[in-house]
Amino acid sequence: MFTFKKNKVLIIGFLIPALFFYIALMLYPAFYAIVLSFFKWNGVASLGAQFNGINNYLILFRNPVFWLSIRNLAFLLVVSILTQLPVAFLLAYLLSGNIRGASVFKVSFFMPVILSATAVSMMWKLILDDKYGLLNNFLKAVGLEAMSRPWLTDPHLSFQVITLINSWQHVGYFLIILLAGIATIPEELFEALKIDGAGIFTTVFKVVIPLIKEVIGVCVVLIMTNCMKTFDIIYVMTSGTFGPNNVNQVPVGLMYYRSFVEDNFGQGSAIATMVLLFGVLISSIVYIKGFQQKSDV
Q1: Per the confidence metrics, is the pTM higher than 0.70?
Q2: How far apart are CA 130 and CA 161, in angstroms?
Q3: Domains plus CATH for the chain?
Q4: What is the rounded distance in angstroms from the CA atom of residue 33 to the CA atom of residue 143?
């Protein structure tokens, strides 16, 4: 049997390269961004960085666009969890049964996940175009012209639309995860529930969900981390403006704008640090709370 005690050198030898790349590509950039957030630097190495203390954070906290991006991120988190998780679970539960063509449905629902965010954004941008978009033209054709909207330029509507498109793209990913979790439940248990006359409500809420509670917790954490990194789909669908008037701004978008448009890498690093701390804090609370509840049972 392959054990750690007998193969310490071999196992450590395989782990060291992975550890090196993890430190070099993950931990070091994160640490460097935290350090850089206390400096004023325009990105040009020859000019050097000037120590700025906590001024970058003070300027950031006084910026109304930053708080707008935080509100948008909170909205994105809530809507993503409330849409992606229930829809993915419903589809996974339906596809876990012996239905004809289940593999075709699985591939179809997973297809948006393997497409690039840029391709998805461009597709929906064309569909939702004010004048030539498929959606508005369809509404006009069926006599519902009053329902047509400038979906991506209306400041009261655009971010909600983008949030739903983001959820649409990622549902298939969590469908596969939840489908794998449901597959671990013994088939005999479902047969026993049928014999006992248990309804679908009892089966889902009393049996399935409690048994895949850890899988659901992992999905929640993954949804949250995906939301923290959301940038490309908003950038493409707003043509890089995050507008109109920054109404679609998110922290990562603001970080990009401060760093690569205004050449203020100190401010950009401060935003990146806040996103990192916020992400780690929220994800840790969800993860620890989920496992704490499990241990108390």
Answers
A1: yes
A2: 14
A3: 63-296 (1.10.3720.10)
A4: 54
